[in-house]
Amino acid sequence: MTEISAPGTDAPLDEATGVFVDHRELLFGVVYNMLGSVADTEDVLQETWLSWTARCGGAPLAGVDHPRAYLVRVAVNHALRRRAAISRRRETYVGPWLPEPLVADEDAGTADGPALRGEAVSLAMLVVLESLTPLERAVFVLGEVFGYPHAEIAGIIDRSPAAVRQLAHRAREHVHARRPRYQAHPRVRREATERFVRAALGGDIAELMEVLAPDVTAWTDAGGKRRRAGLRPVHGRDKVTRLLTSGRGGPDRPVWRYRRVNGDDAAVLFDGDAPFAVLVLDLTPEGDRVRGIYVVANPDKLAHLPREAA
User: Fold this and answer.
1) Going along 222-253, which residue ranges are E strands?
2) Is the pTM here over 0.85, yes or no?
């Protein structure tokens, strides 16, 4: 959480603090969808806060007619610079890399965490966005997720409107080629997730062969920190079924809890009260088969998740 000064210490700074807090959820959503990392997003928000408060000698609002647009521009440009550091880390990452999941609290009727209320991007979509250039991704997130017009995006990333239109076109074409426009109903997603977990836990090969699409792919992101975790994606229904029924690398007494992850129904595996892995399924457009299995098991990416209540 970005640290801010206590109210009453400095009137201009107090006002600026209120403005920043009012826009923090928006900033978190934009930056997280650009980076796919909670830790990096928090660092970018801290950098944005420091840039904001350093402006005009501690009077950030001086000369700023539109604080929201100004803060988004600062955050986006800090995020674009952060992408270079993330790319360097990815070069030495062990095994498949998946985005850091945002998991809603069990009892929340609506998600409490930032970026989950109305602008959630699914884990599967975040994987697709990783294949865009940083600028394409920024334009896609601002335009397609948050509804910014091209002219406003041009001012944020310091490009011409024509350049933004071209970036937006390339990004949309790339994303739509890899992601169907139709998404399964939430109830269908929940039922598919529960069916999958039951079959996997019970080692029910026949049921798994029924629920998995022939071209299913399973990704396990453990960052080299879980024993016997696969270092490559597993493709095909037969190989994925063997992987799921091998029982390798998991806790001795697994406990599954259903949660909303990045706005979608998913499941969290606990080892005792500690989160062990997050499971997200990507369904076919019809919603009747699983075509993608995303397992985030890197402990560093689960550190922000709440522990299971006794």
Assistant:
1) 234-235
2) yes
Longest dimension (CA), the chain: 67
The amino acid that residue 205 corresponds to is: I
* Cα atoms in the Cβ-side hemisphere of radius 13 Å centred on 173: 6
Contact 273, 310 (CB under 8 A): yes
As given in the structure block, the two tokens for residue 286 are 């019809």
What lies within 8 Å, CB to CB, of 132 at 6+ separation is 140, 171, 174, 175
| Model pLDDT, residue 62 | 72
Q: What is the mean pLDDT of residues 210-214?
A: 94
Amino acid letter, residue 228: R
3-state secondary structure of 95: coil
Summarised one tens digit per residue, pLDDT across range 70-106 is 999 999 999 999 998 999 988 899 999 999 999 886 5
Closest CA to 118 of 49, 195, 28: 28
